[in-house]
């Protein structure tokens, strides 16, 4: 059995340079797109997507030929074969625009009245969008948009962020936090659990938790994909267990949120589809804790739920509630997100699949087993890396100073 947890993250944005009054610089960062379906890519699987953007002061059928528009250079996406079922780009592209890894473009010194944002999508020399140029929302936060296209689904879905230099003051303070958060992400460690057969209590260490899972699996083995393993009950138990720990720290219980669950479920399904080691959802709208586990049979849902939350909570052993050391956050990130006072809602995603037995990562078992991926997302996200935030949001248990 192998199980892993990964600490939660919070995403901050960045600021742009200042320019002359009445003008602005604008950057566009594409975070995800969904275009052609699998069968549609066969004749163009080695061809690249291309994205064109223009900013205009008035509507026009052809922005590239209009004097009322500024158009950015065309930017190349991924190959069609690498964009199935969707193309994803790291949220770090918002801060560091690496042309080899990111899908970004920009406008220099655009007049303030040019606010209509047009997009056109091509693959090789073929225009996919219909009509060719279409207006999409121009918002200073992550936006999801559908544009009509010559695809089997009838549209192309686009997730993107638009940054203007007019956002500078509001974003500048967040930029500093982003750098610290990226350092945290690089240092975040993954803890592996392996199967043993001894103890019956959940325990207070990872070794004791793995023994607990093994003993429960031996005593009350369930077929993972059968109706005996109740996913709805599992989600409820995860929530109840979170709230039991939160009550110990005198913070309000989480409310369960279906919207957050959908986001968590999408990422759990993605990890299971890829049969992947744990990695974070690049669309980091929420705080996130992850858990992974594998075995030929599963213990009852209650045992796994209790083990998931206990593995998060034991990171708080010896935690200093009167101080803040960012370099140690990678050791306690699950715990601090779990009891973060300002976080109010959570959702749980669960995906179970039969392993192919082809080991594609160090975290995966060598032989075919059932794998369960658990994604817990939190809103508002916790672990905001500042001393004031941690002292205000991480409260000691009753009776602890």
UniProtKB/TrEMBL annotation:
Signal peptide: 1-22
Span of domain SCP: 232-386
Pfam families for this protein: CAP (PF00188)
This protein's UniProt keywords: Signal
GO cellular component terms listed in the entry, alphabetical order: extracellular region
Taxonomic superkingdom: Eukaryota
CDD domains: CAP_GAPR1-like
SUPFAM superfamilies with a match to the protein in the record: PR-1-like (SSF55797)
Protein name stated in the entry: SCP domain-containing protein
Organism for this UniProt entry: Steinernema carpocapsae
Highest classification ranks of the organism: Eukaryota, Metazoa, Ecdysozoa, Nematoda, Chromadorea
């Amino acid at each position: 059995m192998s199980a892993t947890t990964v600490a939660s993250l919070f995403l901050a944005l960045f600021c742009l340079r200042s320019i002359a009054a009445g003008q602005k610089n604008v950057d566009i960062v594409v975070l995800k797109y969904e275009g052609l379906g699998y069968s549609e890519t066969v004749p163009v699987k080695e061809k690249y997507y291309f994205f064109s953007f223009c900013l205009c002061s008035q509507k026009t059928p052809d922005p590239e030929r209009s004097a009322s528009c500024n158009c950015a250079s065309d930017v190349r996406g991924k190959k069609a074969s690498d964009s199935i079922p969707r193309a994803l780009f790291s949220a770090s592209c918002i801060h560091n625009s690496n042309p080899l890894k990111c899908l970004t473009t920009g406008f220099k010194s655009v007049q303030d009245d040019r606010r209509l944002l047009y997009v056109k999508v091509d693959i090789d020399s073929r225009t996919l969008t219909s009509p060719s140029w279409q207006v999409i929302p121009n918002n200073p936060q992550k936006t999801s948009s559908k544009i009509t296209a010559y695809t089997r689904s009838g549209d192309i879905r686009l997730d993107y962020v638009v940054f203007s230099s007019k956002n500078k003051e509001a974003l500048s303070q967040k930029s500093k936090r982003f750098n610290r958060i990226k350092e945290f992400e690089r240092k975040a460690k993954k803890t592996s659990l392996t199967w043993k057969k001894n103890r019956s209590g959940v325990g207070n260490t990872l070794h004791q938790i793995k023994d607990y899972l093994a003993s429960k699996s031996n005593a009350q083995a369930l077929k993972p994909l059968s109706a005996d393993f109740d996913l709805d009950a599992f989600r409820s138990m995860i929530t109840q267990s979170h709230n039991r720990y939160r009550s110990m720290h005198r913070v309000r219980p989480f409310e369960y949120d279906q919207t957050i669950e959908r986001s968590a479920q999408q990422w759990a399904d993605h990890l299971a589809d890829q049969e992947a080691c744990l990695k974070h959802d690049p669309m980091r709208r929420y705080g996130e804790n992850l858990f992974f586990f594998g075995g030929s049979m599963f213990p009852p849902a209650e045992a796994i739920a209790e083990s998931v939350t206990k593995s998060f909570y034991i990171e708080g052993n010896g935690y200093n509630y009167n101080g803040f050391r960012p370099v140690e956050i990678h050791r306690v990130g699950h715990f601090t997100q779990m009891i973060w006072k300002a976080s109010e809602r959570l959702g749980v995603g669960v995906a179970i699949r039969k392993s192919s037995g082809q080991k594609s990562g160090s975290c995966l078992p060598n032989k075919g087993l059932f794998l369960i991926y658990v994604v817990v997302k939190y809103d508002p996200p916790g672990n905001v890396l500042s001393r004031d935030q941690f002292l205000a949001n991480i409260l000691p248990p009753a009776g602890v100073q």
